[in-house]
Amino acid sequence: MPLRLEPSFRERLASSDRAFIGMWACSGSALVTEVAAGSGLDWLLIDMEHSANTLETVLLQLQVVAAYPIAPVVRVPSNDTVAIKQVLDLGAQNLIVPMVSSADEARSAVAATRYPPEGVRGVGSALARSARWNRVDRYLQESAQHTSLTVQIETTAGVDAAVEIATVDGVDAVFVGPSDLSASMGLLGQQTHPDVVAAVEQVFTAVRAAGKPVGVNAFDPAAADAYVAAGADFVAVGADVALLARASEALAARFITTDGPARASY
Length: 266
Hints:
single chain, 266 residues, 8-stranded parallel beta barrel
């Protein structure tokens, strides 16, 4: 019996009447990712750019997340044809490609997700989880329907080219990265600087005018709220490793003091 794949990130965004709220999975642990997958959040970004995730750990995470309604999105390490092919063949349906600063770079990302003649993706569906080893009917002919591509704008050049990037056929959404964008603007580490926020909102305006969904990374709750109010269609509001870091620091601050009462001696 032919198998059906899950709705893509593109389809889920289109059917939502509110901003999609998600978080990052950076630990490389399938167990931690499964904990996050059952959280009730809308989407989960499995990151390969700034984490220890490998093809094997991404595969394990895709398998555990499949038991939950959350939408998994994999960020590949770079806009590289081979990397994109490998992650797609693992069964990832939803990709984020980082550091896209021009329409040509966006077209390159699209081509990497499409089989010839529309693109350059290598054909290995009989060997790959993507087509469930040829158990998904007409996967080769209809793979573009199963795949959602989000490109990430993270530079001033990308901000200036946002309209051209968003209108590339095959780009389903645009995700803004204020961390690298702030660095590109000479404001390293100042993601909520008014000039950075203005640049993010400039991308929002351009992308939404092109009729595409736009999202942003915002770990500061106030910034996340403001971006939702400004029209963000999806927001990443935290990360597994950041949550663990801050929570463990809070435990240390609560229970370890230099001026508190000493432990009783016996």
